[in-house]
Write a structure and sequence with these properties.
Blueprint lengths: L8 E6 L2 H16 L8 E6 L6 H20 L14 E6 L18 E3 L10 H13 L6 E6 L2 E4 L18 E9 H4 L3 E5 L5 E6 L3 H5 L8 E12 H9 L11 H5 L9 H5 L9 H5 L16 H18 L4 E5 L4 E4 L6 H10 L7 E3 L2 E2 L2 E2 L4 E2 L4 E3 L2 E2 L4 E2 L4 E3 L2 E2 L4 E2 L4 E3 L3 H4 L10 E8 L7 E8 L20 H12 L27 E7 L6 H5 L8 H9 E5 H6 L3 H25 L7 H9 L3 H14 L11 H19 L13 H11 L3 H13 L5 H23 L8 E3 L7 E7 L1 E6 L8 H4 L2 E10 L5 E8 L4 E6 L7 E5 L16 H10 L10 H9 L2 E8 L9 H16 L2 E3 L1 H14 L7 H7 L3 E6 L7 E6 L3 H10 E5 L6 H14 L2 H23 L2 H18 L6 H10 L3 E6 L7 E6 L5 H7 L10 E7 L5 E6 L4
Parallel strand pairs: 1-2, 1-3, 3-5, 7-11, 14-17, 15-18, 16-19, 17-20, 18-21, 19-22, 20-23, 23-24, 33-35
Antiparallel strand pairs: 4-13, 5-10, 6-12, 7-10, 8-9, 24-25, 26-27, 28-36, 29-32, 29-43, 30-31, 31-37, 31-42, 32-35, 33-34, 37-38, 39-41, 39-42, 40-41
Helix pairs in contact: 17-19, 18-20, 19-20, 19-22, 20-23, 21-22, 21-23, 25-27, 25-28, 27-28, 27-29, 32-33
Length: about 1100
């Protein structure tokens, strides 16, 4: 939802300083989350005086914005020159709103991301800002945009954006309108426009005939005023000039500081109306054409009217003659957030008129947590709410920012806002059907803040006149009599309360439910709570209820809304957000669901709640291996909890530290990591937390701490992978004789589809499917190992190269020489790990290596390995080599293992090495032919292999079309693996979806192989390559991309082998091609002069083992 606009300044106007401070906090939070540009000048300001109107608020906001821009550009006085290239947006918060104490602009909407969780609740502000930024103002010239927030506004189709190349505003003003019916427009404002779309008149709440006369293009629709206006730079400068012109200077903070009386100027019915071509100066100035002041019903005194006429004469002087054009947005949808509506009508508006926002969808459950043992009815809308065990929510009810506690019932057709846990404790009989409850954090002058509840019926209209005639009192219900008493005796509220009214008419709303002081807030003897207000909803009230009510001090709905503590209200929302997020976090991790928690982590960190999420994640990691809380130990969940902690640490460091990947063996972390290795998860988690606490103070330490948590995650992955040990079967066989080499040779492998899904933890959390093929390269098996006994009681480990200079021999005569088996970069680490796993010697034994070797084998042994493939080839070399080594060392030990047990043993070796490999490489090189390997999403990890039966004819055909190209670029798979595992644990929706695609593509590729369809196989290879690039960004070096583009016209399919990033590229050609022909295709590719093309063939046998006398070479 990042908007990152081209705006120069964003100004929010509101009624009070406290309100401005609350909105400023919200804007700065949006800026910190990247929703608003960091360079954008953002501020929220209070109106300098009461009742300056939307026009006065616009003038004051423009003045303040111009001052900021002048100062930023080095001026010492306010100058309109800064407006020449500025693009300013002013949003008016306007009047308070009874159904959401935070105001219309911050009404939370029923929108959720199309994928993943909410980072923050979507508000009307977000939708308005998006619509103006991306659809209305995108491409507009510099100038001033003004927007009211008293409506929901949307343009559903992105193609509906205004094309500014076809609009000529010149030095004028552009007003945005939408087509609406005459009936709807009777209660609102309408533009009357001429054939050039210039405004002739602006009519507010006119008669049906007046409104009908405004219909456009021969339709029955009229141009409805939306509250969105654009002022050109010239018009903006004109407006700014009036800040020093009496009496309009009374609208600004400068006028207030000079003691000048305020003047109420409407943006539309005073300022814009002066630009209308269809009215004259006289009727404008005296108020015959106005929203309110010139009417006979106006409460203004003669002096006030003269003051207003003076102001209007100034407006006429400055703005008459400026051309105001109306842009009718045909696709626009406009819905007022109206105080005249009942709570039921407001709920319908939320459900039916919510704007569309790209990347989001409408939902009936928005960032809410519902306990499985609660009962929620049909068509219930939940926004940022908690419903606990045993609670009951009736049909068609709306809950917004509510916490319904255990066993509390809320009836059907209700609207509840801000119903908190404390209030629920006093709901002995629950919330009755068809009720509206709005909880408001109120702070009356001189008193502490408290949450009060305005309780009405769902169909009550707050502004309907509720005068009760004396001659009908006998027919009234007891509730109506109470209301009649309260309304008739209610004192008239101060003029400042007109802020919340739909129209500033002093007497009009005196006898309304909104203005009546009916809600009990204080009793001299008892504590007043929500239940006392709820009793007022009963049609029959008891005598005791009457008496209690009379003995109370009361507040009106209006007074509550007027005295809302906005900061406390936003804090209430945030507290519920964290409550819901915490509950969801536990649910997601406990079941290891494919739901990304990154949005939660980001918000926890931005709001300074990192310790809360750390404590939650620590408890999840411990509980996952506590059999008292789960059916069995789940190290996979603990590992994910560690990955989550690493993500939180990464967010805390933000962009001020180095790369996430790095070492994780600092001595200060050694003890808790060792506890994890030993299986003592609880103490390990607590130990990690103690060290973590000391590493939170700067970005570099945070990133290093994140690396150590990823190291802890790897330890628990190793615990999970070790579950394959239960499937390893061995049998005794004749031991290796003297003077004999026992040799294992293996083909390489290419992965045709599904790679990465074989990698822990994906393979046991999500399940894996991989199709690969065993390859002969230039007719040979390129990978092998051999072992023989020697008389000297030492272990010789030889890595054979192409010549003596490239051959390395490591002699191990002490147990200590094997101790670095877990360090991948140490000499012969892979061979050492295989020896440790096969227990040829016991490195924990009290016996020396010499004693063990002499006892078991009568001497030492020599183990030699080779690979005719370069490091980082992508052909599975290290895993396949591990399989070959295990085969020969098991033989030395007198043990025989089938291929499946060798495959599992390789997994264990790679965990010992901490390289974290998967199972597909060893399947590809140990088992011949083309096959599909699969693993289920479960522990213990189990792998099955299905060899795909090919005819000899198809094998030859496939081999004739297959070419292998060494690109000259190498990259260790581990470098990519760390990023892939990190992405997987985030459960980003795109990564989870890509994993689904990898598996389904593998299954489809296997079917294509079975039918011998080369074209389909090529299609699946191409799809696979695209999926690899999603899984591991950076796996396609530019040289490889150039080569693939050059080969594309001749290829059915192509991909880099293995993890990508370099190594070998394999190519399935449309027609059989020689390697010389392929080399010619690459001759003109920049940087590809040294590539080597190989002939390859499918090896149907796989690993082969045989004996050779030691005298042979």
């Amino acid at each position: 939802m990042a908007f990152c606009s081209e705006w120069t300044a964003l100004v929010i106007t509101c009624k009070t300083r406290q309100c401005a401070a609350a909105y400023q906090q919200q804007l700065e939070l949006k800026q910190s989350r990247g929703l608003l540009s960091k360079d954008l000048i953002v501020f929220s300001i209070e109106d300098p005086q009461d009742d300056i109107g939307s026009g006065g608020a616009t003038l004051n906001a423009l003045l303040v914005a111009t001052e900021h821009l002048s100062m930023k550009k080095g001026y010492t006085v306010v100058t309109s020159d800064v407006l020449s290239d500025a693009k300013i947006l002013i949003i008016h918060m306007g009047r308070y709103f009874p159904y959401d104490p935070c105001g219309r602009s911050f009404v939370c909407l029923p929108l959720v991301p199309e994928n993943g969780e909410l980072e923050d609740l979507v508000t009307n502000f977000d939708c308005l800002f998006y619509t103006i930024t991306k659809q209305l103002a995108n491409g507009s010239p510099p100038g001033l945009w003004v927007c009211s927030s008293d409506m929901l506004f949307q343009m559903p189709d992105s193609s509906a954006a205004i094309d500014w190349s076809n609009i000529n505003v010149d030095d004028g003003v552009l007003a945005i309108a939408v087509p609406e019916s005459v009936e709807y427009a009777l209660h609102h404002g309408v533009y009357k426009i001429d054939e050039d779309n210039c405004m002739k008149d602006l009519i507010f709440q006119g008669t049906q005939s007046q409104i009908s006369a405004c219909c456009v293009n021969g339709s029955s629709k009229v141009p409805l005023v939306t509250g969105i206006v654009f002022f050109s730079t010239y018009a903006s400068e004109k407006l700014l000039t009036t800040h020093a012109t009496p009496p309009l200077d009374g609208c600004t903070y400068l006028g207030s500081d000079r003691g000048i009386e305020p003047v109420c100027i409407s943006l539309f019915f005073d300022l814009l109306l002066a630009m209308a071509t269809g009215i004259n100066k006289k009727e404008f100035v005296i108020g015959e054409r106005s929203g309110a002041f010139g009417k006979s019903s106006s409460p203004l005194t003669t002096k006030q009217k003269q003051f207003m006429q003076h102001a209007r004469s100034v407006l006429w002087k400055y703005f008459n003659g400026i051309k105001l054009k109306v842009k009718l947005v045909e696709e626009g949808v406009h819905s007022y957030l109206d105080m005249w509506s009942s709570p039921m009508e407001y709920c319908s508006l939320l459900r039916q008129k919510t704007p569309v926002l790209p990347g989001f969808k409408q939902s009936m459950t928005v960032h809410s947590h519902v306990d499985k043992q609660s009962l929620v009815g049909e068509n219930v809308l939940l926004i940022n709410s908690v419903v606990e065990k045993g609670a009951m929510i009736g049909n068609d009810t709306t809950l917004v920012h509510c916490h319904v506690t255990e066993n509390v019932s809320v009836g059907s057709n209700c609207y509840c806002y801000g119903l908190n846990a404390n209030a629920c404790r006093n709901l002995t009989n629950g919330v009755p059907d068809k009720s509206s409850i709005v909880g408001i954090m109120v702070e009356f002058s001189g008193k502490s803040q408290e949450r009060l509840f305005a309780c009405t019926k769902i169909h009550d209209r707050l502004l309907d006149n509720m005068d009760f005639k004396d001659d009908s009192e006998t027919c009234l219900s007891s509730r109506a009599k109470l209301l009649a008493n309260a309304i008739s005796s209610s004192k008239f509220l101060p003029y400042s309360y007109r802020n919340v009214m739909a129209k500033a008419n002093k007497g009009k709303h005196n006898h309304t439910l909104f203005m009546a002081r009916i809600f009990p807030i204080f009793h001299y003897q008892y504590r007043v709570n929500i239940s006392h207000s709820l009793k007022l909803l009963d049609d029959d009230l008891s005598e005791n209820t009457f008496q209690f009510w009379f003995d109370c001090a009361h507040s009106s709905y209006c007074e509550m809304v007027e005295n809302v503590n906005h900061i406390a209200e936003f804090d209430h929302r945030l507290s519920l957000y964290f409550d819901v997020a915490s509950r969801k976090l536990i649910d997601v991790l406990s079941a290891n669901l494919d739901t990304s928690l990154l949005p939660f982590f980001k918000t926890f960190v931005l709001r300074g709640k990192h310790q809360l999420v750390f404590d939650l994640l620590d408890s999840v990691a411990i509980d996952a291996v506590d059999t008292r809380k789960l059916e069995g130990k789940r190290p996979d969940i603990s590992a994910r909890a560690f990955a989550c902690i690493a993500d939180v640490l990464g967010y805390m460091a933000w962009d001020k530290a180095g790369l996430r990947s790095g070492p994780s063996a600092n001595k200060k972390w050694k003890e808790p990591l060792h506890l994890l290795e030993c299986g003592n998860i609880k103490d390990g988690v607590l130990g990690l937390a103690r060290v973590r606490e000391k590493w939170l103070h700067n970005p570099d330490l945070l990133i290093r701490a994140a690396r150590h948590y990823e190291g802890a995650e790897q330890i628990l992955i190793r615990h999970a992978v070790k579950s394959v040990a239960c499937f390893i079967k061995s049998a005794s066989c004749s031991p290796l004789e003297d003077n004999i080499w026992y040799i294992a040779e293996c083909p390489a492998r290419i992965d045709l589809s599904g790679g990465w899904t074989d990698t822990p933890p994906l393979c046991y959390e999500f399940g894996g499917s991989v199709v690969n093929a065993a390859l002969l390269i230039e007719g040979k098996r390129p990978i092998g190992a051999r072992i023989r006994k020697i008389k000297n009681p030492v272990i010789l480990l030889t890595l054979l190269g192409s010549n003596d200079l490239e051959t390395t021999t490591v002699e191990c005569s002490l147990l200590e020489h094997l101790m670095d088996y877990f360090l991948p970069q140490s000499p012969a680490a892979l061979l050492k790990a295989c020896i440790v796993l096969a227990r040829l010697v016991n490195i924990d034994s009290m016996q020396t290596m010499e004693e063990q070797l002499m006892t078991k084998y009568g001497g030492g042994f020599e183990l030699q390995t080779w690979s005719r493939l370069p490091q980082g080839s992508g052909l599975g070399t290290s895993s396949i080599l591990a399989g070959a080594v295990l085969r020969v060392v098991f033989k030395l030990a007198g043990q025989s293992h089938d291929s499946k047990s060798i495959i599992y043993s390789v997994l264990l070796v790679e965990q010992l090495l901490t390289t974290g490999g998967g199972w597909q490489d060893q399947i590809g090189g140990l088992i011949g032919g083309v096959k599909i390997g699969r693993s289920a999403a479960q522990l213990p990890l189990s792998v099955t292999t299905e060899v795909l039966n090919f005819s000899d004819e198809f094998i030859l055909k496939f081999s004739a079309h297959l070419k292998l190209i060494y690109t000259g670029k190498t990259r260790l798979a581990r470098n990519l693996l760390q990023n892939v595992l990190r992405n997987w644990y985030t459960k980003r929706p795109d990564i989870v979806k890509n994993c689904c695609n990898l598996k389904s593509n593998a299954e489809a590729c296997a079917e294509a192989c079975k039918t011998g369809d080369l074209s389909k196989i090529g299609t699946h290879i191409n799809m696979y390559w695209q999926q690899k690039k999603v899984m591991a960004s950076g796996c396609e070096p530019e040289l490889c991309a150039r080569m693939m583009r050059a080969l594309s016209p001749y290829a059915l399919g192509q991909s880099l082998a293995g993890a990508g990033g370099g190594g070998f590229l394999y190519l399935l050609t449309k027609e059989p091609m020689t390697k010389q022909a392929v080399s010619l295709l690459l001759k003109g590719v920049e940087g590809a002069q040294d590539v080597v093309v190989y002939d390859v063939g499918i090896d149907r046998i796989g690993m082969t083992c045989y004996y050779l006398p030691t005298t042979s070479t």
